[in-house]
Amino acid sequence: MTSASKPQGRLLYAQSGGVTAVINATAAGVIEAARAKGVQVYAARNGILGALREELIDTGKETKAAIAALRHTPGGAFGSCRYKLKSLEANRPEYERLIEVFRAHDIRWFLYNGGNDSADTALKISQLGKAMNYDIRCIGVPKTVDNDLAVTDCCPGFGSVAKYTAVSTLEASLDVASMADTSTKVFILEVMGRHAGWIAAAAGLAGEGADAPPHIILFPERTFDEAAFLAKVKATVERVGWCTVVASEGLLNAEGQFLAEAGTRDAFGHSQLGGVAPVLASLVKEKLGYKYHWALPDYLQRSARHLASKTDADQAYAVGKAAVEYALAGMNAVMPVIVRTNDAPYRWKIEPAPLSKIANREKKMPASFLTRDGFGITAAARRYLAPLIQGEAPLPYGKNGLPQYIALKNTAVARKLEPFAR
Amino acid sequence: MTSASKPQGRLLYAQSGGVTAVINATAAGVIEAARAKGVQVYAARNGILGALREELIDTGKETKAAIAALRHTPGGAFGSCRYKLKSLEANRPEYERLIEVFRAHDIRWFLYNGGNDSADTALKISQLGKAMNYDIRCIGVPKTVDNDLAVTDCCPGFGSVAKYTAVSTLEASLDVASMADTSTKVFILEVMGRHAGWIAAAAGLAGEGADAPPHIILFPERTFDEAAFLAKVKATVERVGWCTVVASEGLLNAEGQFLAEAGTRDAFGHSQLGGVAPVLASLVKEKLGYKYHWALPDYLQRSARHLASKTDADQAYAVGKAAVEYALAGMNAVMPVIVRTNDAPYRWKIEPAPLSKIANREKKMPASFLTRDGFGITAAARRYLAPLIQGEAPLPYGKNGLPQYIALKNTAVARKLEPFAR
């Protein structure tokens, strides 16, 4: 922005997909940057659905302090959603409705904060805006604990779940180590990552060397080899006295099924989801006879703002701020991505990248990040992962001992359109 | 101690049962207080087993900084054990062996850091010392996340797991709230507490009022009422949009069975332990059709020193220090207990209480702490619980983004006896 004049129109911000410990830091970056330029920010309630339903929130009703507090509040302050727009061909009315809502509220910039699906949606809207002769700039803003976005070096949200996982692995291992003589010998921690083992890999930062936990990491990138797994558990218990295993929820058996669904049945005979840890625990008990414990932190891992990585929180804020700068500078169909310029000391910057290179792509973990036996991470992986969990991001606690998380007023904007009949 | 002369003999410290985020703070309190009096502290490796096996550790080999670092390191620094000595009548040789080891190493004070079993053991050893004409002072030092020790107002270890549980409930609920429109509607957090619902109750501190999470707490003190539970889940989802449930692992069905064992079978047909959450989740899915997620933090909750309560960490240190003072003052068969002198502002002090009033007793949660429907906590419970999670207990983080936990040298003391043949 070289012009000092106030930009015309409003900016719409929406959160998409699974939320994270720092997605609201991105929202703070967006709102604070826009306010600084005199631009009004609306937020869509429950992500893109709020835009379709014309359920918009006027963030201008929030105090400066409330917006600043977003920087340390987990979850999605305006609501998010799991809702993927179909292709333009399959559901053109939805896209047209979005443009209609934008037009009614003079939305000239749309910032969509999500993963590769959301990047695709933002890209399509930018194209349709042109086709419908409506001037709209669409910016994708990166967010995902899965760390699977293309182009960007890492994804805001991942660093914090990585730190949570590494710290939890370390702490629980200290517990197991002190009890192993007479109690639990094998501890299994199940972490998120349906298709890629980035989070599981981060557990590897808890320790280094064969005897340090985690002793075994099970990645979705490697087919589960029961014999090799059991042999390594046994060898570890015999050598170290105990064994910490970190398993990705997406672990597959030789038939390509999720291990979590392959064995366990609940009381109703249904296969039980989200439980690879108990399956592995039963195996260890059955085949090796060791006492086990297992943990499955589920949402705790991605909402643990109390243990966020400073690197991650800073980057989350920075991509929000950059997204506004790009939008107001007239860029379209881009995403602010994180570029690593140095490993140690870690240095990074934000650059725009075309959404067309990000939409619908999935970044896999490089094969070079896994050790030959597939049960650990390499030095290359450590070099990549280590900076992402660095630094703490303190937050204010109340006298009641709880973090002081903000609940926004989320004041609705008056509707101008008829309800959307899909 | 009014005398300025150095006390004669050594002090033995042992950790017992499940470890906590702050049991090592107690160890720090013991060692620092003893060092200040010029008394040498040995620690038993793996709890009472180390005493039986004559596996003793000379804590004098550790630096001042290392002992200070214990104050912020979770787990059991010298190892703990699940091993209950039988009665004097059933296994007198074990007790005699302990006295033999004490005599060989001039152990004149024995500090046993554990729960009600350990209090019983310490009491029995004190009695046998008299019978065997060996001058030994036995002090029980309180520790248990279960908060079920008699006499003491609360137990070191509990406040921190309480804080972890309240904060995790709050954070995960922010996540669920933001996704509920299109995704998870019911989130179930399973917490420890086999026989008493203290930890589950602490989750109630996350929010207050019918619409604030947790909406439902399931206590082992109340038989699981499936119909009432499902009705409340449904009403909550319909009113609030989502529902957070916190369930104690010790939840019982009408037949008096653990719900966790009553339904689920693993791949081998064994009942699966430690999983009341998946059983409840299946029920919610089956009967109400809601999308669910569940979490089971297991050891993560009791080892999370990164989220410890300052109240708890301070009390853990204080009972260690007081135990040494009592021992050196010649007291025997007592435990330093926490006495609450005021609720708000919270004030507490440490006093000695006879082990005979603590050994083998279990403090239940008062019935007045549970709401009439049995799904929540009362104002009385809040008044009791609130101070225990107050204050944060910061710890040093390394440049690598991990807490700087200490690993002691744990230098072995040379043996003087033949191995113990049980």
From TrEMBL, chains A, B:
Protein EC: 2.7.1.90
Manganese keyword on record: no
Catalysis: reaction(s): beta-D-fructose 6-phosphate + diphosphate = beta-D-fructose 1,6-bisphosphate + phosphate + H(+)
One GO term of the biological process aspect: fructose 6-phosphate metabolic process
Pfam families: PFK (PF00365)
Domain annotation Phosphofructokinase: ranges: 12-324
Main location: cytoplasm
Positions that bind diphosphate: 18
InterPro entries registered for this protein in UniProt: ATP_PFK, PFKA, Phosphofructokinase_dom, PKF_sf, PPi-PFK
Site positions per UniProt: Important for catalytic activity and substrate specificity: 117
Site (Important for catalytic activity): 143
GO-annotated molecular function: 6-phosphofructokinase activity; diphosphate-fructose-6-phosphate 1-phosphotransferase activity; metal ion binding
Residues of the active site: 146
Binding site for substrate: 144-146, 192-194, 249, 299-302
Taxonomic superkingdom: Bacteria
GO CC annotation, single: cytoplasm
Description of how the protein assembles with itself and partners: Homodimer.
Protein role: Catalyzes the phosphorylation of D-fructose 6-phosphate, the first committing step of glycolysis. Uses inorganic phosphate (PPi) as phosphoryl donor instead of ATP like common ATP-dependent phosphofructokinases (ATP-PFKs), which renders the reaction reversible, and can thus function both in glycolysis and gluconeogenesis. Consistently, PPi-PFK can replace the enzymes of both the forward (ATP-PFK) and reverse (fructose-bisphosphatase (FBPase)) reactions.
Protein name: Pyrophosphate--fructose 6-phosphate 1-phosphotransferase
Originating organism: Dyella jiangningensis
